[in-house]
Design goal:
- By secondary structure, the chain is mainly alpha-helical.
- Helices cover about 85% and strands about 0% of the residues.
- It contains three helices and no strands.
- Helix 2 packs antiparallel against helix 3.
- The longest helix has 30 residues.
- It is flat and about 50 Å long.
- It starts with a helix and ends with a helix.
Length: about 60
Amino acid sequence: MGQAIKAMLSSKKFLTALAGAVAAGFGIPEEALVPLVAYVVGQGIADHGKERAKVEQSSS
């Protein structure tokens, strides 16, 4: 469990999402949070591609 928390706190995607949630809690308009959401989604897609390449490379 401690490893999972440590991994989350070192994740740029998690920290960005957390910052967005805190900002939303302070009443920042949704339009201002769109770049944060785009960053998290984009990095998720990029990371998925990296993991897929690792799996394909190790199975070859």
